[in-house]
Amino acid sequence: MKPIKADLLILLVTIFWGSSYLFMKMGLNSISEFNLIALRFGLAFILAAFIFFRRLLQVNLETLKYAMLLGFLLFMVFTSITYGLKTTTTSNAGFLVSLTVVFVPLISAVVLKKKLETRLLFSIMLAIIGIGFLTIQLPFKVSIGDILCSAAAFFYAIHIIVTGFTAQKVDALNLGILQLGFAGLFGLIFSLIFETPTLPGSREGWFAILALAILCSALGFILQTVAQKYTSPSRTGLIFSLEPVFAAIFGYIFAQEIMSIKEYVGATLVLFSIILSTVKMKNNHLGDVKEGVIDEKYI
């Protein structure tokens, strides 16, 4: 697969995930948080496993090990988001979770013990200011939902980095399918411990769960895992920077969520920081500078 095709697949996934905040909020009107995670990823795994049954027969222990790790990271991501959506808007959630692409190079720099570039430091500063505009309400209160959605961004950054590493070592499709099963399993275990598992009691609830399971999970995470084998985590992060834009659009059209001027300023700063964290300058052969070009190592 050519990198451009991989990037287009990730763009499609980004659209699916932009809509997922609205679907999660709809689903939470019918069932509880861990229950939603269990149904979303459980149904997604069943669907994907049915389609790729023969492929799954080739799974090995190493793939299971990596899939369990990725599944746990997904569980942490969506536990944070589903609880966060109880006290924040879909638009806020979309922009805060999109900070993933600021965390990706930051975590990579810490793990590899490399000095942070000035560009990345500036993007982090912009992100922090943007978060302040988005989340701080006078008299200086921050919603717990905003904090949880920021935590989800951190967990998802780890997921992207680990996926980029593990997809090179084992069958990417099996890895993408099995991580869904493990995420659903963790959701079911926690639902049995802390909740009473149920099925959605309304048509809206079923629509939300099926959309989350089929589009946002089964197709979304499998396509992401396969596509990441042919592109880089940083390119993936750049495309994912469009996710909050789609989240805000879906929130405006279907939930009538209107952001204040302060929130628009914060959202703009966050979006700019995300793009800045993944786009950098490069020199051409004559020493001139071209602006707005993706670094060659990401192509």
**SSE arrangement, N to C:** HHHHHHHEEHHHHHHEE
Q: What is the number of strand segments?
A: 4
**Cα distance, first to last residue?**
13 Å
Number of domains: 1
**Number of DSSP helical runs:** 13
Q: Strands of the biggest beta sheet: in what spatial order?
A: 1-2
Measured by DSSP, the beta-strand proportion falls in: under 5%
State Rg.
19 Å
**Helix fraction bin:** over 70%
Biggest sheet descriptor: 2 strands, antiparallel
Overall 3D shape: globular
Q: Helix/strand-derived class?
A: mainly alpha
Mean pLDDT value: 82
Which parts are unreliable, with pLDDT below 50 for 5 consecutive residues or more? 281-299
Describe the 3D structure.
There is one protein chain. 74% of the residues lie in helices and 3% in strands. By secondary structure, it is mainly α. A hairpin with a 5-residue loop joins strand 3 (282-283) and strand 4 (289-290). Helix 2 packs across helix 10 and helix 11 (233-240) packs antiparallel against helix 13 (261-278). The longest helix is centred in the first third of the chain and has 25 residues, at 3-27. Mean pLDDT is 82; it is low at 281-299. It is a multi-pass membrane protein.
